[in-house]
């Protein structure tokens, strides 16, 4: 790629004083002042990209500031979340109305006072943009590349919504997704994965504007990043354009029109810019990236802009009115037309209209759970991945806007939707339709997670799947799901050393502990097919958090629920599966595949006259959410003889077994061998559980 950039200012003269230039310099100076007042932040990118952002928002985007929940609005993603003052300035100048409790209010989303509180405790202007925290922020960004992945998911969601709900004369969904990204995004693997997906899917409704300023924290990107980005994206199947000067708003608008006219390929606009444009000593240097410019440099920069040098957070007369006369007037007219169109759509297509209304409101379809099967007792049993596949298909068949897939593993994770009409989400050239329900993410776990977050942001319910060991590749998007309270369903199979011959590279050990430690994530590891069914009954109504469903490769006995407690106890996270009558001498507890192991030990101990309680603990976070009285009824504090069994790291079990209990867990990585041999080697046998139980009874 040619490294063509406009010349840096030499400090002489001043910028044009046209109303457009006043708006652009207002964005620049608000961003500079916010970072300076906070004594923390990233001013340079906002200064460089202010012209691009202004032209996009004021003159191009279809967005109604008075109705920021309008379903057909264009989406703006600031993947370079460190430049958050750029977005906050845009939200303020655009006059975006605030949303509280899901309703648009008459109050502004941000005031000038909010900009002055940048990065302060409790402010609406945190260091990186946060979805739901600040109206006008479409997704939480900051970890580089995540916003790029989200934007691909948003574009896929628009394609799916249009394919399912648009009808002749009723183009309900035709919005575009615009993303600002930078050199850091280009270096992150997740952005490359997501770009590859977008190119394959021919997402012509997606435009990335790449700020090629060639500066990162350590200095020039030439020290680490010299690839030809243009050719890379052309190889992905993208339409690639170049903006030679990020200050040339007219040229950018021409390129944006070109991008929107290209409907069969996503577009990358490579915008050559100078970080910190206008700063006489720091423009084009790493010093403009991640620290305040300093009072003297700001004064000189403002002088170059023709700005009052000693005024902070200054908004000249006419700027707000001019900015809002473009975006606001255009958006208000477009959203009013859409609302009228949707009212007519409800009359012409009431069933589809009811679905769209449910998606907008975040409600579930009536009868979504009516096909969930129950499973008869069976000693041979069924792998929980297989029983989950049956339940997933039953649920998705009655949940029309539930879509998802796997990272090239659906035959193993059992997540392929097989009912009539499910179809594949593919462009027609690849033999599918954009209305398909099965998404093929390819071997791209990281992008899969961030794409699902983007899909969820459109109100569609996504699921994705892989092996539990590969949740390591998905930690960032799972964390972002939790931060944004998005109801993505993560389905992870092959959950233990019982994977067998694939060996320790594929046998998860620490992953359960890591996922349980992530705030806002509900993890469920069901013990048998009926717990699987109950897990789905619990997960689907949770619309404010992600769920992780952890499933086995090997068969698990289906317990006789006439003998043992009903699987409905799963909803409370942990429940008494088998009781002894009276106060127990010992509590055996386990999750997932190990529950049947402790049940077998329980039956032997019961015959020996030992009072034993078995507790199934599929979800620790659901259990911790229960009242103390319930938790104490399941795990009485005065019963200290306890054994926990789980084919994973023992981290966390101490809170349930206490200082004197015993955990039969993994203390290292696994090995390559048949599952039965591994269970014997690592002590996951009935005899090993019995030995631990007898030690506990003797101690007590």
From TrEMBL:
GO terms for molecular function: metal ion binding; transketolase activity. It catalyses: D-sedoheptulose 7-phosphate + D-glyceraldehyde 3-phosphate = aldehydo-D-ribose 5-phosphate + D-xylulose 5-phosphate. CDD domains: TPP_PYR_DXS_TK_like (cd07033), TPP_TK (cd02012). Its cofactor is Mg(2+); Ca(2+); Co(2+); thiamine diphosphate. InterPro entries: THDP-binding, Transketo_C/PFOR_II, Transketolase-like_C_2, Transketolase-like_Pyr-bd, Transketolase_bac-like, Transketolase_BS, Transketolase_fam, Transketolase_N. The keyword Magnesium applies. Binds 1 Mg(2+) ion per subunit. Can also utilize other divalent metal cations, such as Ca(2+), Mn(2+) and Co(2+). Coiled coil: none annotated. GO terms for cellular component: cytosol. Its EC number is 2.2.1.1. Thiamine diphosphate binds at residues 82, 142-144, 184, 213, 289, 470. Homodimer. This is Transketolase. It comes from Komagataeibacter rhaeticus. The lineage of its organism: Bacteria, Pseudomonadati, Pseudomonadota, Alphaproteobacteria, Acetobacterales. The gene is tkt.
